[in-house]
Amino acid sequence: MTSTFVLRHAVFALLVSCVWAFDASSQTNVALYWGQNSAGSQESLATYCQSDAADIYLLSFMTSFSNADTLPTLNFANACTSKFSDGLLDCDQIAEDIQTCQGLGKKVFLSLGGATGSYGFSSDSDAEGFATTLWNMFGGGSADERPFGDAIIDGFDFDIESGESTGYAALATKLREYYSQDSSKDYYISAAPQCVYPDSYTGDMLANADIDFAFIQFYNNNCDVDKQFNWDTWADFAQNTSPNKNIKLYLGLPGASSAASYGYVDVDTVKSALESLDATNLGGIMLWDASQGFSNEVDGKTYVEAMKDLLEETFSSISASSESSSTVSSSSAYSSASSTEASTVSSTEASSSTAESSTSATSSTESSTVSSSSATAASSTESVAASEAASSSIEATTSSTSSTSSTSTALSSTSSSSTATPQAPAVVSEQPAPTVVSEPTSTPVAASVPTPTSAASEPTQQAPEVTSSTSSTQTVPTFTATTLSTLTVGSSTSTSSTATASASAAFTDCSALSGKDKAACLNKNFDSGLYTGSADSCSIEGETACSSDGSFAICNFGKWVKMQCAAGTTCFAYVQNSDVDIGCNYQSQKSSFTKRDGYLDIFKRSPAHVHHGHN
């Protein structure tokens, strides 16, 4: 009787593991952070794991760590309070829940960092030593004190939001060495960068270590889904910078409006974003956090379930083939539920007018051929691709370089080159005028898709200004999304030019102005390289400005991060719907906002609105 029961239990467990098998290469995974009781109604880990709407759970957080000699600190809110004699948490119930979740085919990671805490390394050797601690306490190693007992987690996540970037790449590499010692299961490493590229804390690790998943936080930033959405910047990172060309990028969102200061978006907005982004390296959606997402009811289902359904409806029929060699396909990833392309990994969006081009992108380590197509025009390029723009900006899709053959639009043939630092590519490009698709900025339209690009890069110490060459053939300017490429601020060339500009012009306070007067005042500061007061630093996180070379700039951790505008556009302040907006707009329109009509005094005092971001 007992043996029969055991056999049945074993068979059932085997069937469950087969049904719920985790697929790391899938585009439809949902990852949830759990442990901080963000909504105040957090249930047990095992309770959430009963749902088939999520695939990865990230236990948050290990809030304090520094080296192998210092005991780390764990914090799981009210989910664990018992401790060993030395103060280390002893979480028997979480340990049991981890094994329950794993039996249901879920992956469970331990997340290190978080918004609060004291953590970081002073050297790579300290980080490598701490990798041993992690492996023995939580992985396949052994230790006298293991917070989760016999339960073995499936990986480590790095949600680093303070301190320095030192050591994290070395830590990830050392963990890989330990992973290779245990062939009984798969282990993973993930990071949770903020969407501004490169992330100040995990950027070095992402660029220099083998990372499986990037849970990108598209909230509490100016690059959120409903703002200057820069997914294409991250897609370019995955295809051209990451050591792991199969890295999976997750669209990180708040699970409810109360889960973040801003960045929560409705289901339709997420659907539009999924349908328009380059899904080559898409892994799915990440939500902060489980308590928020499961308590947020949307149209009769939880927000977590709604996200899972969106992913499966959009990508269930699209091949999840990995792309790590010489042929890479780029286009909108939603092609259509009936269209699947595996061996060549090429997806084409249905359209009555399509332009195609291809170019070769080379780097120090590889050469890849990129083919792409979109609803109106596609051009794969040698410049660094980047992000889609948001609701308040008027922008155009980028195409820079190569000979282009088109059935509907004539593009000039130009050449470009690009240079890069290890963390953020700087681009020098001579670009043709863009082909523009009509898309209202206030209402996302899935059929308008910017074409991602590939990059040819080499180390440099300069960030030259961008010059553009305009073709005589261009469609009627209307609204669409832009692509932006992140540039570093502070290289020898850009710094010296900014310093010269600053010395020759004094900053003007534009805060009391309105309309065209304010736009003209801001543009004068921008053209002088003064941003919103200083070229060397900024004080308001998420604040936007323009650089003197026409790049869009965002304040990120006290420094300006520049992103190149699309071909045919430049960054400046302009008036839209009586508001003053700052963003990439058509070059031909800039003159309308550099002086008042009739050449009158541009410094009329009255209030106006400029979009700013906050943490």
From TrEMBL:
<keyword id="KW-0624">Polysaccharide degradation</keyword>
<keyword id="KW-0147">Chitin-binding</keyword>
<dbReference type="Pfam" id="PF00704">
    <property type="entry name" value="Glyco_hydro_18"/>
</dbReference>
<feature type="region of interest" description="Disordered">
    <location>
        <begin position="392"/>
        <end position="475"/>
    </location>
</feature>
<keyword id="KW-0326">Glycosidase</keyword>
<dbReference type="InterPro" id="IPR050542">
    <property type="entry name" value="Glycosyl_Hydrlase18_Chitinase"/>
</dbReference>
<dbReference type="InterPro" id="IPR001579">
    <property type="entry name" value="Glyco_hydro_18_chit_AS"/>
</dbReference>
<keyword id="KW-0732">Signal</keyword>
<dbReference type="InterPro" id="IPR001223">
    <property type="entry name" value="Glyco_hydro18_cat"/>
</dbReference>
<feature type="region of interest" description="Disordered">
    <location>
        <begin position="322"/>
        <end position="380"/>
    </location>
</feature>
<feature type="domain" description="GH18">
    <location>
        <begin position="28"/>
        <end position="314"/>
    </location>
</feature>
<keyword id="KW-0119">Carbohydrate metabolism</keyword>
<dbReference type="InterPro" id="IPR017853">
    <property type="entry name" value="GH"/>
</dbReference>
<dbReference type="Pfam" id="PF03427">
    <property type="entry name" value="CBM_19"/>
</dbReference>
<feature type="compositionally biased region" description="Low complexity">
    <location>
        <begin position="392"/>
        <end position="421"/>
    </location>
</feature>
<dbReference type="GO" id="GO:0000272">
    <property type="term" value="P:polysaccharide catabolic process"/>
</dbReference>
<keyword id="KW-0378">Hydrolase</keyword>
<keyword id="KW-0146">Chitin degradation</keyword>
<protein>
    <recommendedName>
        <fullName>chitinase</fullName>
        <ecNumber>3.2.1.14</ecNumber>
    </recommendedName>
</protein>
<dbReference type="InterPro" id="IPR045321">
    <property type="entry name" value="Cts1-like"/>
</dbReference>
<dbReference type="InterPro" id="IPR005089">
    <property type="entry name" value="CBM19"/>
</dbReference>
<dbReference type="GO" id="GO:0006032">
    <property type="term" value="P:chitin catabolic process"/>
</dbReference>
<dbReference type="GO" id="GO:0005576">
    <property type="term" value="C:extracellular region"/>
</dbReference>
<feature type="signal peptide">
    <location>
        <begin position="1"/>
        <end position="21"/>
    </location>
</feature>
<dbReference type="GO" id="GO:0008061">
    <property type="term" value="F:chitin binding"/>
</dbReference>
<feature type="compositionally biased region" description="Low complexity">
    <location>
        <begin position="440"/>
        <end position="457"/>
    </location>
</feature>
<dbReference type="GO" id="GO:0008843">
    <property type="term" value="F:endochitinase activity"/>
</dbReference>
